[in-house]
């Protein structure tokens, strides 16, 4: 294998390992729990072990060495999955077809980045806003349709900033635009995403992502939450409110070695307000080093419950600006607001 390619892969693997060690050592326990979903830190240790083994192979030039013919596997496969250790030619017809499909998908991902647009969803009104901390950022949101014609939406965050995070998010967007129309369930799409990105040498840190599917006829929201900040669902109940946090159903992509995602369902009702957001919103700081936090977010959402999604996001932006004052944002923040049919456009 070309020494420059090996060097690039080794450097990326080293950065992945350093990022995971940094995350383990500096992330508060509550945030760790959110990112891990239903996994634990032992799963992170297993992922680190796989990274260490790959780095050892990169050091002694055995990374990607085929266990059958002792030649190197295809470079494109190593860059997509650094654990690959058998050439495609040695796989069965079915295994080869699956691998070739993944490689073809990886190539499509580089070419199929499409512009975003707000969807027209019967019985639901939506709005979205995103602001990078730098010129480009690692936050991402998008809307699409699943194979069963359900309306899909996603919000995600690469643990990083700037151009590297932005490029990875572009790949994630393209992947979702390809995968969603081929699958009926957020779980199936999440499984494919994990396959594409978990061992990808371009994944320097990890990705948190909330992926939902909404059926306007049944008003059922089906979702997977891969270590992302729990979206907030507020329902008006008589004189008060009920609040649901759509908690993680699995770990962030690229954070643990073993894949184990769950899927949840919730039935939405007229007047329900759903807010999806990245941690740049709740972790924005003011001059006193205080975070905006979930409680301020919840209080504003309860006050503005009767507003349209557009008005709600407008209020949130102004509330955040008033809270932070002259303190610059240190992270990207992105929001999607959705409200179930109480008014017309």
Reconstruct the topology from this structure.
Elements: H1 3-26, H2 29-36, H3 41-59, H4 75-80, H5 93-109, E1 124-131, E2 139-145, E3 151-158, H6 162-179, H7 186-197, E4 207-215, E5 220-226, E6 232-237, E7 240-245, E8 264-267, E9 273-277, H8 279-282, H9 293-303, H10 309-324, E10 333-340
Antiparallel strand pairs: 1-10, 2-3, 3-4, 4-5, 5-8, 6-7, 6-9, 9-10
Helix pairs in contact: 1-3, 5-6
Question: What does this molecule look like?
Answer:
- The structure is a single chain.
- By secondary structure, the chain is of the alpha+beta class.
- The chain folds into two domains: 3-109, Four Helix Bundle (Hemerythrin (Met), subunit A), CATH 1.20.120; 124-340, 4-Layer Sandwich (Phosphatase 2c, domain 1).
- Helices cover 39% and strands 20% of the residues.
- The protein contains ten helices and ten strands.
- It has helices at residues 3-26, 29-36, 41-59, 75-80, 93-109, 162-179, 186-197, 279-282, 293-303, 309-324; strands at 124-131, 139-145, 151-158, 207-215, 220-226, 232-237, 240-245, 264-267, 273-277, 333-340.
- A five-stranded antiparallel sheet has the order 1-10-9-6-7.
- Strand 6 and strand 7 (240-245) form a beta hairpin.
- Helix 1 packs antiparallel against helix 3 and helix 5 (93-109) crosses helix 6.
- The longest helix has 24 residues, at 3-26.
- The chain starts with a helix and ends in a 5-residue tail after the last strand.
- Residues 110-115 have low confidence and may be disordered.
